[in-house]
């Protein structure tokens, strides 16, 4: 099925290897003159009819079905258009009068955004994919995008403790529900409904060096916030092969690559003081940073004097 075919990070990676220069496919104009086979033409006719339909319930189901059809027929630009039309219809104002329940509308919207984000990622429209991932997280899990970006913008001034507290507030709806459960939640059958899995998927997309989101925000900052949130939710919804310490490690890897923030790695290791190795490594790293800073000050030239040397 379409949703299953698009649901794994492994699939995304494989597709990207197969289509290294395919980003132009989704940017192609929909009215570009290309050879159209009968199945594609039939689907395009149905898409046009759905756009003109006065029955939003029919349009929603048609858009979703056609997105799957276009993807199967290897027409990603049309699959993207169908998904975008579905999302725009369900988020439009006033809200469409459909026969779907609010839970069904949420499911349609979430699955459409997830499919669109992965489709964009496969075809290397990375920033577009990032935006749709954040919208999906906000709609499904109430991880508010503006709050997340605000934390990311202030990351350099935040201690790790302050970061974890902010992420706890960011995911408060989910965490409050899970912390108040009398018994564990039933096991999930669909990984798309795993908050840890989707948070991790989005985190990996932001964890790229020297890239920016919305032109000014380093994507690594957003990745750190998302990984920190993963560390909070994963005890309640485990991701195979990952533990809280694994997300701490991913955070430390990014911090160590950011200029002037290596010391935050010490704070991350001290989050788990029960681990003797963490405490020992934190001490060693503290000594290394102290030695580096001392040598740097010792070697710093006197610019005021040197400026007048002829």
Question: Could you characterize the architecture of this molecule?
Answer:
The protein has 310 residues and is mostly helical. The protein contains 17 helices and two strands. The protein has helices spanning 2-5, 9-18, 23-27, 38-52, 56-72, 76-91, 102-122, 126-141, 145-153, 160-170, 172-179, 195-206, 219-233, 244-257, 264-269, 276-299, 303-306; strands at residues 212-213, 217-218. The chain has a two-stranded antiparallel sheet. Residues 299-310 have low confidence and may be disordered.
Chart the SSEs and their pairings.
Layout: H1 2-5, H2 9-18, H3 23-27, H4 38-52, H5 56-72, H6 76-91, H7 102-122, H8 126-141, H9 145-153, H10 160-170, H11 172-179, H12 195-206, E1 212-213, E2 217-218, H13 219-233, H14 244-257, H15 264-269, H16 276-299, H17 303-306
Helix pairs in contact: 2-7, 4-5, 5-6, 6-7, 7-8, 8-12, 9-13, 10-13, 12-13, 13-14
- The chain-level structural class is mainly alpha
Taking pLDDT < 50 over at least 5 consecutive residues as the criterion, the unreliable ranges are 299-310
Fraction of helical residues: 55-70%
* Rg, Å, rounded: 24 Å
- How many helices in DSSP terms? 17
Order of helices and strands: HHHHHHHHHHHHEEHHHHH
Record the strand order, biggest sheet: 1-2
Please state roughly what percent of the residues sit in beta strands, choosing from under 5%, 5-15%, 15-25%, 25-35%, 35-45% or over 45%: under 5%
Largest beta-sheet details: 2 strands, antiparallel
The rough form would be described as: elongated
Counted beta strands: 2
For the residues shown, what is the average pLDDT? 84
- The CA-CA distance between the termini, in Å, is 75 Å
